[in-house]
Amino acid sequence: MHRILITGAAGAIGNVLREGLRGRYPVVRVTDRAALGPAQKGEEVVEGLDLADLAGLEAAMKDVDAVVHLAGTPVEQPWEPILANNIIGLHNTYEAARRQGVKRIVFASSNHTIGFHPRGRHIDETVPPRPDGRYGVSKVFGEAMGRLYADKHGMEIINLRIGSFQPKPKNVRMLNTWLSHRDCVHLVDVCLRAAGIHFEIIYGVSANSRNKWHDSLAARIGYRPQDNAEEYAAEILVAMQPEDEPLTERLFHGGEYCAMEFDGDLAKIG
Description:
Elements: E1 3-7, H1 12-21, E2 27-32, E3 43-47, H2 54-60, E4 66-69, H3 79-99, E5 104-110, H4 134-153, E6 156-162, E7 164-165, H5 174-177, E8 178-179, H6 181-193, E9 199-204, H7 217-220, H8 233-239, H9 247-250, H10 256-259
Parallel strand pairs: 1-2, 1-4, 2-3, 4-5, 5-6, 6-9, 7-8
């Protein structure tokens, strides 16, 4: 890969990847609607780019080998911003990449695509989607769009079902789901370099002792996470025990997203 593009580079993950991937590739191009500041050595900066602007996205992808697509609404929101950014904007991103001959997309999917699977269950990349909100639905859509562009247009797609991206885990659930900054940079780097990719799903999670997410790709492409949420377990469990989590949160992988607006029947969710 000579030139990679990071969309949504002003966001939390984008900032970490912008810093962490700089110097690993000859050119790192970064885009966002928000201000990005001056270009650093080996960088190209495209500010003010909206996902609704298909022509602008095409221009941003000129001579790009791979895209790390982070841009979009990053949390649960009303339907309108989800539709604009994570549905229409996602389509525009894939189509602009296809038109410009981009070979690979690493898509920031989410663990909220499988949020309503019971938390006690170990799951892999083959389980059916069980989104826990509108945000999760939009990420299921993003994975389906990637499947279409892989099969129909021969693009190489890796979907990262990102866990809890934080400097350190903050609660009981994150002892399972934490993704450290260091491991995130390493994971995206190996996804960009991996050979033999068609369409893949990988869980973005550190080497947590309590991890219940597993996939066949991580080890094959050389992902070797260094951080383990268990190092923070004693500190977390002093303040909060597992039974202290609200019932609707602690039953499912999606945690608090499952509890948002919930008025269903827990007994029917198996």
